[in-house]
Amino acid sequence: MSPLSTSNSDLILAKENVHHLTYFPFHGLAGCIRTTLVLLGEPYEDHTLSFKEWMAQKSLTPFGHIPVLREVTKCGKSFEIAEISAIEFFLAKRSGNLLGKDFWEESQIRMFHSSTHALFTFLVHTVVQSPQSDRAAFLARFKKTNLPQWIRSHEKYLVANGSNGHYVGDQLSIADIKTASVIEHLINLTNGEGETPLISEELTPAIMAVKSNLEKHPQYAGWRTSQQYQEFTNGNLRFFGF
Ligand SMILES: N[C@@H](CCC(=O)N[C@@H](CS)C(=O)NCC(=O)O)C(=O)O
């Protein structure tokens, strides 16, 4: 990867570029990226890897992890970008309207996004990386401390912004997409038998408004009812259990 020259920067902003996302066949940590790609409505190809295919490709990726986004321009030049947050902000900036109206709005959007990203990566990484024998204790602690703390603060800030389904102002941002893309997994995590639900229309209406607001978007609604979305949901339930 070489630093972008001005001309590369121009090339990368071209609307006809094809976005190629490589990840596993589940939502995992790629929900916000896939949602943003769907909302952009630009040419986009989703490449999923089995674990065997991944092991063969791991050393070829920038940091040995996926997702990785490859941007292919009309003239065949290709640019690669890795790291979830970097990809999300790359797409948000490229979209031209997911980072607020000014620097302060963007800073707040980054703050809310970062809080949700930290919560969800902590959950996914610990579930995947901790020994099976430690998982129940980890999940119990997550549901008792980390998740309620996130819910309390996010509900509070969303109410303060008027419970309009947005964190900042009255327009969709990458922070809204981030929350909307993790919420159904957090609900699955806390809605099992014998569990105490923590997120619902009654308990957290402002958080739920972020989800329902995004679901009004025809492209997103269409993707959620697609077979591919359902397959990724099934993959998530099999692999993570939420
Ligand atoms: N720091 C990376 C972490 C991404 C990550 O954890 N990816 C997991 C999948 S959810 C992965 O690549 N797992 C396979 C591996 O590490 O070999 C990012 O932000 O993109």
From TrEMBL:
GO terms for molecular function: glutathione transferase activity. Coiled coil: none annotated. GO terms for biological process: glutathione metabolic process. It comes from the Eukaryota. Pfam families: GST_C_3. Residues 102-232 form the GST C-terminal domain. Residues 17-99 form the GST N-terminal domain. PANTHER family: GLUTATHIONE S-TRANSFERASE (PTHR11571). This is Glutathione S-transferase. It comes from Linnemannia schmuckeri.
